[in-house]
Amino acid sequence: MLKRVDFFRERWRIVRRLLLLPALLSLPSCSSGPVTTGNPPPDCSQAEVCDGVDQNCDGRIDEGLTTIYYPDNDGDGYGYSDSPTEACTPPGSAFITQDGDCDDTDGEILPGGLEICNGKDDDCDNRTDDSDSEVSGAPNWYLDADLDGHGDPAVVTTECTPEEGYISSSDDCDDTYAGSYPGSQEFCDAEDNDCNGEIDDLELTYFEDSDGDGYGSATSTLSAGCALPDGYVLNNIDCDDVNTLKNPTAPEVENADDDNCNGLVDEKLTSLAAGSYHSMAVASDGRLWAWGYNYQGQLGTGDTVNALTPIVVPDLTDVAAVAGGDQHTLVLKFDGTVYAFGDNFFGQLGDGTTHDSSVPVWLEGLSNIVSISAGGRHSLAVDRSGTVFAWGDNSSGQLGNGTLDRNPTPRPIEDLSGVAAVSAGLQHSVALLADGSVLAWGDNERGQLGDGTVVARVNPGRVLSLPPVTSLECGTFHTLARSSEGEVWGWGWNQLGQLGNGAATDATLPVQASDLSDVLVAHGALVHSAAVTASGEVYTWGDNRDSQLGDGTEMASLVPQELNSLSNIRLLAAGTYHTLVMESDGTAWSWGSNLYGQLGDGTTTESNVPVQILGLP
What we know:
Elements: H1 2-25, E1 67-71, E2 85-87, E3 95-96, E4 140-143, E5 156-158, E6 166-167, E7 204-208, E8 221-224, E9 232-233, E10 269-274, E11 278-283, E12 288-292, E13 307-312, E14 319-324, E15 328-333, E16 338-342, E17 357-362, E18 369-374, E19 378-383, E20 388-392, E21 407-412, E22 419-424, E23 428-433, E24 438-442, E25 457-462, E26 469-474, E27 478-483, E28 488-492, E29 507-512, E30 519-524, E31 528-533, E32 538-542, E33 557-562, E34 569-574, E35 578-583, E36 588-592, E37 607-612
Antiparallel strand pairs: 1-2, 1-3, 4-5, 4-6, 7-8, 7-9, 10-11, 11-12, 12-13, 14-15, 15-16, 16-17, 18-19, 19-20, 20-21, 22-23, 23-24, 24-25, 26-27, 27-28, 28-29, 30-31, 31-32, 32-33, 34-35, 35-36, 36-37
């Protein structure tokens, strides 16, 4: 029995020791009890020092005693804030306690640094260049509203990078007009083009018009300013300045004399004209010949059958001039009356209806007309007093009446006077004034108004930067003008080189055609242009995919090139894709597209060289 009791006592002592073991293990090492490890107890009463040891036994090392250091690799006295190191001593010679640097590779970039235009945050304020109001040394930029490369000194901004429309130049004298800037050519346009402080400071040569027919004598001149002197004109193409019956627009009669001043005597043809796909010629006997496309009656023959060779327009006599539109034709008679035929969907015939006519219809209300022009779908005329009449389509303001409303009958353009001649493009119009200046209105998408913009205009406005002009002709989207010096100037669509200045970009201001002088007349078409010189040479330029340049190839030309196969040319006309000329002996030639017989050679075969027009008188 005693032995069983001892056994249970021993078992209880073992259990108690096991139960007390966790408590014994949790006692601190610095207890007053005996230490069984053999090491001396730590002194937890010591003050914490920065040495990487936990002196105060709180489980933390060097608490509250370390310092944050920052690398200062560029030596500017400011450490790089994005690379902090906490330590008792600097981890290296390039570490400092001052932070704030935003670029530790450039000693010029630091807090409080000088902010300059360099694309960097020089003063470390999280702002760069123009976003920092404290930027120093930013340049001035000047508004170039008219896009002529010269800024307005009165409209300036100071910033590192200019806003759109601002440039560094500040020498413009009129930032609303692209034709005015230092070094620009001075023109008679009531502007200080060259910014020299003077307006229209030019001296021009004028020619005496003794007989008052609007054409001057080459032998009697006067030098004066821009104001047209009484009794003088800008052209010198009258061949008899004492006889009003002899001038470039007079009818040629059989009298052994040159009545129309074209250098020919009693010639059989007096003028040529071309529409989009049809052609016309006026004979000296007053008859009109027509050929080509006739789907809408634009040949005036009473039917809609195409003609592969010229045929006489019946019941039409005493014709002085003819003009071809897209699909309609205008005729001016010697008595100053006007007739029209062809397409009339937009009222371009001017008879008060919108019905096509395959025979000539008389335009009531027009009299004493001296100039006519047929556009794409509108028509223009000028009377002897200088008043302009317009009718037909007006979707782009090409009638110049301040609206977009079409007119089926001719109506005068208000506040427009002193006009000598007009020309109509597809949807724009131009007028030549007696003083040699030019007005334009209508569509301007390609710059064909010549005012430095591409903004359409419903009222006439001046063509800018243009020397005095003696004649002009509209192409489809461009305009050509002959200056009083015999140069050719053009503006508008030029993607295919139809302005002849060696470029292939549109021109919203007039540019001079390259290497052309002593020009008699210039005509524009859709994508090509042509000119005849006083000595009878023919020049063509622009697109040539339809052989319209007549040089034997289909290669385009950005500058005028002479057609050596022709000489002694006196008359010229350009259709959409074809060209017509007449020699001094009366022989007429054509080239280009011939899909509808518009070349008049009896075929529908395209020709890249001149072919003779058959059947003309």
